């Protein structure tokens, strides 16, 4: 239980080496994660009250014309269900021991940008593209590949986007946004009509704000897998995310950071270097509820992998069947250790 007398403004981080990041700063970090994450800007937020949340969908319900006294037909609905599961993500960021003399509030105000960036980059990598260390059972690109709603990128961006939109329209769905890396911007800018005029540039800003009416969420540096996809289009209301709880932290002073190398090319030993590190964790969730709501434009040879199972499964018996177990991926996912960032 939290100490009611704990004052983060007057207690040094050295004296409070474990706990939850104060709510005000934790909320700021989570807001920065939501702003920085490409998927969170596009997808639909869902409240999380427990580690696994179940969503039930019903289809096959219809209305019928009837005459007076005529028996009304009864629909035979089909029930489908899907599960969204939260997983713990961790980031370790080295810092100097001198910074441990700051108050808890001042310390996290100094570190919050690096924490948020590490979180949203790792979340986007896993949710959009999967990967060997992802804890999620799905990826967004995996849904497009599972439904075979992909096309190979050409030199004609207008046709590429139009044809990708057509995949969704064939399912009576509408794309409402595009996810893409910034390296695609030059291709949009250089797309011209028969008169040599730019097709996509905004008339006022001379930049590309949307394509065929679809807003673009540009990926943060290092979060997009260009070998898997050039663009992902979706009805993003069919992609959910959630955050289970606040952000917890632990200050490390004796650990060896095996994934952060020093100038000698060896893992950093905090004690030997008289350094410290902060380990921060938070618990996001993600799911695609409708595979056919996703389409992708890919390189000629894509490294993306189709999801192993459909987003939803049919409920075949009464009762509350157990939630499907996650794949063999680890239960927590470590975000990049911000090794490229200088120690604070």
UniProtKB/TrEMBL annotation:
<dbReference type="InterPro" id="IPR054612">
    <property type="entry name" value="Phage_capsid-like_C"/>
</dbReference>
<feature type="domain" description="Phage capsid-like C-terminal">
    <location>
        <begin position="21"/>
        <end position="297"/>
    </location>
</feature>
<dbReference type="InterPro" id="IPR024455">
    <property type="entry name" value="Phage_capsid"/>
</dbReference>
<feature type="compositionally biased region" description="Low complexity">
    <location>
        <begin position="321"/>
        <end position="344"/>
    </location>
</feature>
<feature type="region of interest" description="Disordered">
    <location>
        <begin position="303"/>
        <end position="344"/>
    </location>
</feature>
<dbReference type="Pfam" id="PF05065">
    <property type="entry name" value="Phage_capsid"/>
</dbReference>
<protein>
    <submittedName>
        <fullName>Phage capsid family protein</fullName>
    </submittedName>
</protein>
